[in-house]
Amino acid sequence: MLMLSTRRTSPPRARRALGAGLAGLLALTGVTALAGTADAATTLASAAAAKGRYFGTAVAANHLGEAQYVSTLNTEFDSVTPENEMKWDAVEATRNSFNFSAADRIVSHAQSRGMKVRGHTLVWHSQLPSWVGGLSATDLRSAMNNHINQVMGHYKGKIHSWDVVNEAFQDGSSGARRSSPFQDKLGNGFIEEAFRTARAADPAAKLCYNDYNTDGINAKSNAVYNMVKDFKARGVPIDCVGFQSHFNSASPVPSDYQANLQRFADLGVEVQITELDIEGSGTSQATSYGNVVKACLAVTRCTGITVWGITDKYSWRASGTPLLFDSNYNKKPAYTAVLSALGGSSGGGDGGGSAACTATYAKAEEWSDRFNGRVTITAGTSAISTWSVTVTLTPPQKISTTWNGTPSWDSSGTVMTMKPNGNGSLAAGASTSFGFTVMKNGTSTPPVIGACTAS
Ligand code: G3I
Question: Probe ligand 1: pick from 83, 88, 277, max atoms within 8 Å of CB?
């Protein structure tokens, strides 16, 4: 997969010059500049790949029109999980009438970028249309199997892992199965039946059981463990167990997280961290994220990590700011901790490395058809030798002129990456600025300024 990146950490001068020349050449030919191995470990995906893992995120189809959402997705991640679009209520709201349009948009985006796709999820008590609950046992069995066959058939060959059954166990100490139409009418055997149907529907897909509050060793994870052990002993097809890993102060990363992943791996299944998010901020959030990544890396069969969203602003629990990018797509200390735990390089951002910068935007002059913007770059507590920042417009706005910087553009002309033009070297705390003129083309929305990165 090719990575689009705006971030480099102290590249050799010759490589930098070559990169600039290549970017210019590509721009002349109308091709977006793509970074290759020079950026090998400066993104989550490339750093994880160097460790033989994927690094994914949940994606919502309705954000795929937002330039910064997409550029962050494309730059940092190599696996996606549709956050809601493959759930039963989304694809089969009416019996045997399937609508794959939103999920298809995510899958085709991923495929066009060489990203993996996790399928989520086939049999789950939640986001289940009410008609399912009204069926008799015989009818429900055939509806469940039909749902699996139709959905997996539609995506056959395109999904690396499916969450075949999701959240089938109760919380607490009982170790019992959760009440659901499937459990209540079909009994314990519904899980096994779903996995057998799934294997036949797409033999190439890995078949996972996925749950939450199973991240440490406890009654619920013991119950799942016993089920997986039984499945392996009896040849029921199961390839992986997903650990959702939704954490907060009331439910922190368990101290036996790694040991728990390991005991499942020892049963002969892959383990995947499937919905990671950790409420909090700053160093404590970063430390927790780093610990999760280290635990996965320490378990050979832990094959990948998926975070449950890209930016805090679209998280299912946004007020807990649980993700790696803040609402303005700035990399958080948690991002730096994850990258560093993956063995990547943390040249800038808020949380690590000594070189850092901030970017602030101010509107200057405005006319009926255009306005000028100015971005001030300020070095952090150490001197920096270069900086980079993105400016994202609202289409059909266009930038007509820039000054005091070296711009490059994404293929749509919506995202400008600005680098220094002789003003890259800043003492600790010192500032410089660049400017640009935005042609409104009918919209006066201010541009969104991305994270400032420095080295
Ligand atoms: O799309 C509609 C919108 O049209 C409507 O105006 C709005 C008003 O309620 O609702 C929107 O749908 C919401 C949907 O997310 C999309 O944003 C649903 O109400 C809301 O219930 C749904 O929440 C999802 C939740 O699963 C439902 O159980 C979250 O986005 C999603 O992150 C969350 O994901 C689950 C995993 O699938 C399984 N593990 C737990 C995880 C977190 O709860």
Answer: 83
Of residues 449 and 340, more confidently modeled: 340
pLDDT tens across 172-213, in order? 999 999 999 999 999 999 999 999 999 999 999 999 999 999
**How far away, in angstroms, is 116 Cα from ligand 1 center?**
22
- Residue 230 has which token pair? 């039984």
> What's the predicted TM-score (pTM) here?
0.74
pLDDT in tens, 6-22: 333 333 333 333 333 43
Please give the positions annotated as active site. Answer: 275
Cβ contact 455:8 at 8 Å: yes
Supply the residue whose CA is at minimum distance from atom 42 of ligand 1.
Answer: 316
Q: How far is the CA of 447 from the centre of ligand 1 (A)?
A: 29
Alpha helices in 113-217 (DSSP H): 130-133, 137-154, 181-186, 189-201
Residues 421-427, mean pLDDT to the nearest whole number = 89
Ligand 1 site residues, Cβ closer than 6 angstroms: 83-84, 126-127, 212, 244, 275, 316
Closest residue by CA, ligand 1 atom 12: 84
Q: How many helices (H) and strands (E) does the chain have?
A: 13, 18
- Measured at the CA of 389, the angle between CA 386 and CA 395, to 5 degrees, comes to 155
pLDDT of 381 reads 67
The atom of ligand 1 lying closest to the CA of 316 is 32
Spell out the domains of the chain, with CATH numbers in brackets. Answer: 44-342 (3.20.20.80), 357-454 (2.60.40.290)
Secondary structure (3-state) at 78: coil
Distance 61 CA to ligand 1 centre (A): 13
Say how many Å lie between the CA of residue 316 and the centre of ligand 1.
7
Q: How far apart are CA 346 and CA 336, in angstroms?
A: 6
pLDDT, tens digit, 9 for 90 and up, residues 336-389: 999 999 999 865 444 445 778 888 889 999 999 999 999 999 887 678 889 999
Measure 84 CA to ligand 1 centroid, in angstroms.
6
**pLDDT tens-digit map of 56-110:** 999 999 999 999 999 999 999 999 999 999 999 999 999 999 999 999 999 999 9
Residue 346's pLDDT is what?
62
Mutate to test the pocket of ligand 1, among 91, 167, 316 (most ligand atoms within 8 A of CB): 316
CA distance 149 to 151: 6
Distance of CA 313 to the CA centre of its chain: 14
Quick one: which atom of ligand 1 is closest to the CA of 244? Answer: 39
